[in-house]
DNA sequence: AGACGTCACTTGTCCTTACGAGTGATGACT
DNA sequence: AGTCATCACTCGTAAGGACAAGTGACGTCT
């Protein structure tokens, strides 16, 4: 029927035609696309070609395919969950990272001992193979159902002399901040944000659809002297969550950074 | 040969075997994987099955395939570029967002007029179909070659009475901040971070490899009364860039947000 | 009426065959 | 020596066929 010509491969032409129909609104969000057989007839191509085109659109995150049903136009609404990265001061004078309290724990936290890798060692300003307490959590946002994987890493050097950290590595981060404050630390935080495709186990744990990146946050808590005390990592699906940072000018001396 | 059995589909078993070999280090980063023909022989499967397995690994971002050469294990180093999101105060008392100055412009900025969409309208606290000046830039980080797409949106209501904004919508953001400050605004910023898979034109413009998400930043500049003045959007490949936020406690009243 | 089996439709998997196209080395020709 | 054609290897594209598996509706049997 509607023979197409322009770009390169046949399946790309088919993909482009469908993509255009989606983006132009001809195929509405949540609606069912024509079946593979219909697309074969419509464009006069074979099934592998149609499936190849559909695979391309899946990889772009434009459609979801359900076995036995068909292909649905994905609704690209904005994420259901916004993680506010602003620090607020509570009535008793301690600081709280708001996002630390939003989640429910889906499972019992699992604690273990491990050592720094190249990545975690750099963030904690330690070498590699330094001893750490670790604690992994599976978190769920009760209102949206969004899942997240959380990890707390506490260097032995930080836990030294703070009994609760060594004895209860599963203490929640918010409580840890409280303890550190009681021990005289004035805390600041720095966060690094990255995005990448999930590994299969992350895809399964976080229940991610096709072509959904994970947001990977690494938060370092610094003590009074600016030395890193603990490291937290949060991984969650980028389709369900976004980050919001409130930036206010401070009075630090000029420092042009560019790592 | 090494017949595999466990999970579901054949191609998934093949993919799992290769994935394991990569993650365990048997296939080193940057090294060449066996060719499709060799994998067919190795696992005793047909070419489509091998290609299906390879497609899965590409979608995970584990390998890169080059036409005529073969499949290479991707090196998953940390991004070459860190965007520092800390505000510094310069000697003359104005504020600068450091990342605004790091980039080179790869092309002449293109300016246009447009209207708010649902998304941009929400961020600017305007309705839809409100008039805007727009300016698109293609940016390049000279040291790493990382590319980024930048967009500035200035509502007519903001440009009113500030001649340079209406006459020169291609003014660089840093300069715009300066102008707004001269007009008496004490600026603050808020940023929203999202990640998603790129559209084909973004893939091409940003020169992204397979299975590479884009980081999508939306930065709103607020005036003295907190009202949004301008909106900037920055899109760049998540393989080349990461974001770093420095968070310092402020003295705002407690406000538990959760959108 | 209710439970359940069947059937038509969907996508998922797997195979075979064929040719097009990019890459690099080899070797012949100038 | 240098240039260029050829070739073998790689992945990319396209078609065909066949059967498995998930889904929902329809109709029959109890």
Task: Describe this protein's structure.
The structure is a homodimer of 259-residue chains. Chain A is α+β, with helices and mostly antiparallel strands and 259 residues long. Chain A contains 9 helices and 13 strands. Chain A has helices at 10-23, 36-43, 47-59, 99-102, 118-123, 156-159, 163-167, 173-182, 200-205, and strands at 63-66, 70-73, 81-84, 88-89, 95-96, 104-105, 110-115, 131-140, 147-155, 188-196, 214-222, 228-237, 241-247. In chain A, the strands form 4 sheets. In chain A, strands 6, 7, 8, 9, 10, 11 and 12 form a 7-stranded antiparallel sheet that branches. A two-stranded antiparallel sheet of chain A has the order 1-2. In chain A, strand 8 and strand 9 form a beta hairpin. In chain A, helix 1 crosses helix 3 and helix 2 (36-43) packs across helix 3 (47-59). Chain A starts with 9 loop residues before the first helix and ends in a 12-residue tail after the last strand. Mean pLDDT of chain A is 85; it is low at 1-5, 89-94 and 250-259. Chain A binds a DNA duplex (30 and 30 nucleotides) through helix 3.
Key terms:
homodimer, 259 residues, alpha+beta, 7-stranded antiparallel β-sheet, two-stranded antiparallel sheet, 13 strands, 27% helix, disordered N terminus, disordered C terminus, DNA-binding
